[in-house]
Amino acid sequence: MQLLQYTHPTAAGNLAIDEALLDYAEANEDHPELLRLWEPRQTIVVLGRSSPVDIETNRSYCDANEIEIIRRCSGGQTIVTGPGCLMYAVLLDYRRRPELRMLDRAHEFVIGKMKTAIQTLGIPVEMKGTSDLTFQGQKFSGNALRCKRNWLIYHGTLLCNFDLSLIAQCLGKPIREPDYRDGRSHLDFLTQLPTTSRKLSEAIVSQWRPELQTKTWPQVLTNQLMQTKYQQDQWNFKI
Fold first, then answer.
1. Which of 1, 14, 112, 197 has a C-alpha 20 to 30 A away from that of 158?
2. The model's pTM
3. What's the pLDDT score for residue 238?
């Protein structure tokens, strides 16, 4: 496994990198597995692949405050991220890990690794719902995946030092809720980890144990995806 620690200066670029990593691995037989860690430079709203933008976001607030709304390639519901929210992605090979073709096993494997990494910092966290991580009964991490024939990318958020009021202001009421949410508002349902992004990154790297740090990614494919998809309203506001 390789480690990529890189944040693109734009929201479109960061989402395009994750999809480019998946597509490039699928097209190249001997591609290594990879762990990516990054932290946005600006507040952004990220829609799930099938999220209805006018239901799951407060577009008037986002427009008034110049908060970009963009759609990712994976499923799940809309999230808000930015400085103080560590983002991760794990690119995994089905041929090395055939058991992960079962979605519940994929969730258990990746969330289990992230849970163990955080627990090494002395923070007691739990997995709840389909793919959430919680601290003291409140959610601090949402996760999603996208699969291809031989590869999957699993990615998510880890709230550390983020203004949670932005989430309440940017998002509408979710169209689906896990049972453990129990009708709570965004501010009552969400929390942050009592640690820093740096310490969290170190714990995650120690848990996944990448053998090599890389500074390269499929830049040509990333740029193509930015231009044809992630910078286009036809993709971002299609639903």
1. 1
2. 0.95
3. 87
Q: For residue 173, what is the domain's CATH number? A: 3.30.930.10
Q: How confident is the model at residue 239 (pLDDT cuts 50, 70, 90)?
A: confident
- Mean pLDDT, the chain, rounded, equals 96
Alpha helices in the chain (DSSP H): 11-27, 53-56, 59-64, 103-119, 164-170, 186-189, 197-208, 219-225, 233-236
**Domain enclosing residue 21, as ranges:** 2-236
pLDDT single digits (tens) 69-121: 999 999 999 999 999 999 999 999 999 999 999 999 999 999 999 999 999 99
